[in-house]
Amino acid sequence: MPPARHLVVVAGAEPAATDALASALRDDGTVRTAYSADALRESLDEEVDVVLVDAELVDGSIDSLLTDVRAREFDCQVGVSVSDSGRTAVETDTVDAVVRRDPVAVRETVQWLAARARYRAGLEEFYDLAERRAALADEEDALDRLDRQLDRLRHDLAEMFDGLDDTSAFDAALAPEERDLDSRGDGDASADGSNERTERDDT
Q1: What per-residue confidence (pLDDT) applies to 35?
Q2: Residues 93, 179 contacting (CB under 8 angstroms)
Q3: Cβ neighbours of residue 55 under 8 Å, at least 6 residues apart?
Q4: pLDDT by 10s per residue, the chain, length 203
Q5: Measured between alpha carbons, how far is 155 from 153 in angstroms, rounded to an integer?
Q6: Per-residue model confidence (pLDDT) at position 54
Q7: Could you confirm whether domain 6-113 is CATH 3.40.50.2300?
Q8: Where are the domains of the chain?
Q9: Which of 32, 33, 105, 177 is the most exposed place for a label (fewest CB within 10 A)?
Q10: What is the 3-state secondary structure (H, E, C) of the chain?
Q11: Rounded to two decimals, what is the model's pTM?
Q12: Where is the composition biased (Basic and acidic residues) (predicted)?
């Protein structure tokens, strides 16, 4: 299954730096840019898969803005970009990734977040179809059609799952308010013992 294109919002206070990151992402999908917190909020809708917010977009703590983004009904993956010497502390549990403000690292992280978003969207579609099928009784034609759709989705979800680590797949399946990894009882997170909300700085 070829990778699906995604829609990402890149938000930062410096237009040149924001545009540079956006340019690095356009080969993979559609990119919207926002140069203020208000513009970021206005850019959000149900089509957005990933939001990448620069840590310097607002003065002071960025956590209230991230909480506001997550509190909206649009279920998207949220990342924060930081400079090497900039602040990296993000106190909320509503961030899925923190990444250095580097085009290569940002592109890899957005691809990873988009994969999580696609997996969650696929699961939601699967559950919706399964509920519709369960509600049908003797409509054989409709049942056959839904069964074919469910089989296709099972195959697609299996391929998407193979592209994610276990923690990412589990986390992506949760609603945003359920993604606090520290509240899962044992405090366990990813397989390497790190929290999912860690800095992704691989190049």
Answers
A1: 97
A2: yes
A3: 62, 80, 81, 82, 83, 86, 87, 88, 90
A4: 455 689 999 999 999 999 999 999 999 999 999 999 999 999 999 999 999 999 999 988 888 899 889 888 778 899 999 986 555 556 556 788 999 999 999 999 999 999 888 888 788 777 778 888 777 766 777 788 888 888 887 777 777 767 667 666 666 666 555 554 443 333 333 333 333 444 544 43
A5: 5
A6: 94
A7: yes
A8: 6-113
A9: 177
A10: CCCCCEEEEEECCCHHHHHHHHHHHCCCEEEEEECCHHHHHHHCCCCCCEEEEECCCCCCCCHHHHHHHHHCCCCCEEEEEECCCCCCCCCCCCCCEEEECCHHHHHHHHHHHHHHHHHHHHHHHHHHHHHHHHHCCCCHHHHHHHHHHHHHHHHHHHHHHHCCCHHHHHHHCCCHHHCCHHHCCCCCCCCCCCCCCCEECCC
A11: 0.69
A12: 176-187, 194-203
At residue 132, the pLDDT reads 80
CB 94 within 8 A of CB 66: yes
Q: Residue 120, exposed/middle/buried by CB under 10 A (0-12, 13-18, 19+)?
A: buried
Please tell me the distance from the alpha carbon of residue 22 to that of residue 124, in angstroms, as a whole number: 28
Scanning the structure block, which residue is given the tokens 């990151």? 21
Compute the half-sphere exposure of residue 195: CA atoms within 13 Å on the CB side of its CA.
20
